[in-house]
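Q: A reviewer asked whether we had any structural model of the full assembly, not just the individual parts. We don't, so I'm hoping you can provide one. Inputs are below.
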Amino acid sequence: MAYPSDLKYTKDHEWIRIVGDTAEIGITDYAQQQLGDVVFVELPEVGRTLGAGDPFGSIESVKAVSELFAPMSGDVVEVNPVLRDHPDSVNKEPHSTWIVKVRLSSPSEAGSLLDTEAYERLVG
Amino acid sequence: MSDAIADLRKTPLNARHRASNARMVPYAGWDMPVEYSGITAEHLAVRTRAGVFDVSHMGEIEVAGKDALAAVQRISSNDASRLKMGQIQYSGLLTPEGTFLDDMLVMRMGPNHFMLVVNAANAAKDYAWIAEQIKAAGDVAAVDTSSRYALIAIQGPASREVLQPLTGVELDDLKYYWFANGEVANARATISRTGYSGEDGFEIFVPPNMADRVWQALLEAGRPAEVIPCGLGARDTLRLEAAMRLYGNDIDESTTVLEADLGWTVGWKKSGFIGEDRLREQKEKGTSRKLVGFEMVDRGIARHGYPVVAGDKRIGIVTSGTQTPFLKKAIGMAYVPTELAAPGTEFSIDVRGRPSAARVVSLPFYKRT
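A: Here is a predicted structure for the entire assembly that you could use as a starting point for your response.
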């Protein structure tokens, strides 16, 4: 699967899609392959304030649990309601299945994220 | 990474797994497939059709000689004198404390010949223990014959119809927990109606150089029924739904047979077996903790090693837990204080800092109809 060029990536295998002052956060195709069949996504409460690098939830496959970390600072404005009944959306469409939407408090943090080329090198 | 793989042991099917793009993991010192097409798909295939597993990492220890029965009776918790030729029983290989060195299948190959099928991680330890313990039993020897067998399992409701055309052994006559010698796909084979999935199925012992032929023949014969190769991941979720204990998770050298609720594997009418005194004492006095099955009441999945808590106090431990693909529930097994062991009782599990309610349910979670 190709890694979309409009996304930024982290070494923890999350992606972030920044549109204006908000951002969608999800996990990459590489991450979902490593996890295997996702069966549960633990979501944060809307309104929670996250600092860059803070754990904000977890994603569980049949065999393992993996923590989710905020790539950038901000407040959680929405969680993806689809994941409650269809956590496997993360496996099927990893790069369009966002987990949370965050209103960014420090947009300049984007500078420290990986671009598509750098991320492909990381997982290649 | 590559060094680590080089150090792992390989089954005769290793190249086949790797060539088929199975996801490989280190398990008990072996390089084993954890999944082929995905744990959920493989789990559901076994519940509804059939799946084929490479379990050649399992160990085999044969005990033979004029005094073989006496020797097995000493080291095995179950009563081997009740086994007829061709019959199998599940049993414990116990410490003097009544705890598990291992769990195993005991197969009666002949009047004075038994084969013990043991866990891969324990095979060397088991063999050393058995060889020492049977010295006093007279005319008998133990031999680690693990390298002489590849072991392939086919599990699921379609197993019989897939396997039958490949063998002259009449499978309808082979009852659960019996085995027969014969051939599969023209390879010499011992076919045993056993498994670790909670479904009907067979475990097939073949010479290592015949493993690939038999593996391919089963998948080929199973193609119309959509039988698929499966890995250890599905094997684990399947056995958990069936409440079969996993050594190293649910039972080990710190848990007794009665704590693990496996009293049915003890031959109470026989005497002189290792662990007997401690178990008879526990049977009379009761145990302070017990292994129970639970379902999560709160959302979340409890996993191996998570504490069972009462307020700030740690009162037990989860030994196995997952979200099961067939029942679609978060289930598990845990040691809890005996007063909390009755079905319907609720207790709390610390799921990564979050106290989460769970409820005791009767085992097994899944029973085939």
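A: Points you may want to mention in the reply: Chain A has a mean pLDDT of 94. The first helix of chain A runs from residue 29 to 35.
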